[in-house]
Structure formats: C-alpha cells, structure tokens
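WARN retry 2 of 3 for item q-0093 after timeout on previous attempt; input resubmitted unchanged.
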Amino acid sequence: MAEPTRIPDAKVALSTASVYPESTATAFEIAARLGYDGVEVMVWTDPVSQDIDALRRLSDHHRVPILAVHAPCLLITQRVWSTDPWTKLQRARTAAERLGASTVVVHPPFRWQRQYARDFVTGIWRMAGETDVRFAVENMYPWRYRDREMLAYAPDWDVTKEDYRHFTIDLSHAATARTDTLGMLDRMADRLGHVHLADGRGSAKDEHLVPGRGTQPCAEVLEHLARTGFDGHVVIEVNTRRAMSGAEREADLAEALAFTRLHLATATRVPRP
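OK item q-0093 returned
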C-alpha cells in the first residue's frame, strides 16, 4: 500500500519573467490556468509591472496572489522607478506591502555603483528592520567572455560572503558561476528566504532552463527544502523565449511546476507505522 504524502508548506510561484517576451498580464493568466500558487512580479520595462493598482487588479481578477516583488536591478531597468538604487528598493518595498507580498528580491550592486555598493550591506539591514517584508539578496555570477572573467558585482557575486538577513538562491546563476550549489545552500542555512528554480549547464550564459534539463541538483535542492521545513517560496524563473508558440511555452511552465511539486513531495512522504 502506498505511503501517504504530506503536502509541503512551500508555495510554488511563477516569475512573470518566465513568459518573456509575453506580458506581465499573460503571466497571471498562465499561472492561474496551470495552478501555480502565486506569482513573483519582475519589475521591468512593461508598464503594468510598475503599476501597483494594475497588478492588484490582475491578482484579483485571476485569483492569483502576488508572493514576491523582484526589484528593478537589471541593466535594462536602470531608469525604472528612478535612477537612484535606494529609491528603487523603497518603491519595491512599498509595492510588496501594498500587494501583500512577503519578499523583495534584490541583486547585489554593480561594481560601478560605488557609493551604493559601499553602503549596500548596512543599507539592506536598515531597510529590512523597517518592514515585515523580507529583503532576500540573490546570488549572481562572474561575467565571462572567452577566457576572460569580469567581476561585475559588489561586494561580491557570492552573497554568502556577506552578512545579509535573508538570501535568494538562484540555481541558474549558480550554474553560470560554476559554483557548488549544495555548498551554497548549506552556507545560506536558515537565512535562505527565497528560491529561484531553474537549471543550467555551466555555460557562460545565464541559461534559466526548465528544471531537469541541465546539470544542476534541482531535485536535491527541492528535497532538502521539504525536509528542512523551508517556509519561503519556490519561484519558477525559466527562459521560454525560444518557445515556438504559446502552447509550447505553457507546456514548459507546466513541466517545471510538475517537477517542482513532485520533488517537494518526495521528501515529505510519511512512513506508515
């Protein structure tokens, strides 16, 4: 007779970045149709992603909660929500509070943002102390071109070298950095607050493959989260830009959700007495 399975506590969300080049609104539609527990909003050049009222309407219409807000930290979002990085984080916190999201995801500064980088660790602690929203700092990677490597982030792409209250682990970034993902997970320990689940093969390019299609220990990470009672969110953040149709994109996102739920449940099977 099969053993009963305890449903894990971690919620599985869809990053709105996973539907690019489709819109933020499309991400809510797909998340609702496939049965995701919520979404993480990537704040970027799509005007809807920057508009709290529009996001609330989408969330209410599709009955899909917004679980996290990804602050606009990318090169292409340098002018989104101000050119001042601290203003960006303040607006991300406000959005999270108003939308009921528990987490703001933030990247470490670029090295050329010298003053921001100098104050970043203490500034994140200060902001985290002013709200119940988690500021979860995400691991990044060195930039590589042929045989050259550039350290683009400060204080470091490996965020475990600094004292942050909460971390986001991104498995695709770990693959690009060619670092030991499980070792990084151990270093984060109980400060792990958020997960970006995607696969990679160690390419110099940040791949964000569907989990199970690369060499990252995606299954082992999910089973570890379930065993240790992880209380954050697991966010599917994959690249579907090469999908030839909406149906193919949706199939990839359904596969990612099934993989995640399967491996979260695998580690929570309750043995029969």
